[in-house]
Amino acid sequence: RARLGVLVSGSGSNLQALLDACAQADFPAEVACVVSNVPTAFGLERARKAGVSAVALDHKAFGSRADFERALGETLRASGVEWVCLAGFMRLLSADFLAGFPGRVLNIHPALLPAFPGLHAQRQALERGVKITGCTVHFVDAGTDTGPIIAQAAVPVLPDDTEASLSARILAEEHRLYPLAVRLAVTGKVTLEGTRTRVDAQAAVGDQSL
Ligand code: GAR
């Protein structure tokens, strides 16, 4: 089973979805370690409760981004992490860090990329007046939410939506999509082809949700 390191900054509900998926006997990955740059993040509690190593690395306690990322890389490697999943992790990672896990860093974003990258994606969608938005799991490159797309799910924007109601509707889809995308990635059913990915046709057809 592929060893995942999950990085969180907050509630960690996507981490929970991954932990729950990994608890299934036929899931091809396990969570080896959870790291948060926010020591009070509830995600760390979720990890401990699941019996998974939970490490707080407060980025503010490091002198530079490079120092923080070095500690992060060392922590992940010490747990034998092969794949890194960003799950509400609100720090950008440098090309140097990414080079340590080539093609093996995934992120989930609450919009249909390339629309609405960066912060407050749900608010951006409401302000722009789109009628459909959603979530995206993608490989991470050195840009902000620019990496090759693995999987997406759409949700409607309803007339009375607030940022909170829209976020909740997207989050429900995130919890379904992230485990599915991790399965595709770690089993090699999705592969990188430059700025795009190729998703194995059988895998996509076999899974209703793609
Ligand atoms: C999720 O909606 C995730 O897509 C988003 O933060 C939330 C984290 O929730 N990530 C980003 O906006 C990254 N730019 P969670 O902590 O409950 O998984």
Automatic annotation (TrEMBL):
The record marks D145 as: Raises pKa of active site His. Keywords: Purine biosynthesis, Transferase. Residues 3-182 form the Formyl transferase N-terminal domain. (6R)-10-formyltetrahydrofolate binds at R65, M90, R91, L92, L93, N107. InterPro entries: Formyl_transf_N, Formyl_transf_N_sf, GART. The keyword Protein biosynthesis does not apply. Pfam families: Formyl_trans_N. One of its GO terms (molecular function) is phosphoribosylglycinamide formyltransferase activity. Its EC number is 2.1.2.2. N(1)-(5-phospho-beta-D-ribosyl)glycinamide binds at G12, S13, N14. It is an enzyme of class 2 (transferase). Belongs to the GART family. PANTHER family: PHOSPHORIBOSYLGLYCINAMIDE FORMYLTRANSFERASE (PTHR43369:SF2). This is Phosphoribosylglycinamide formyltransferase.
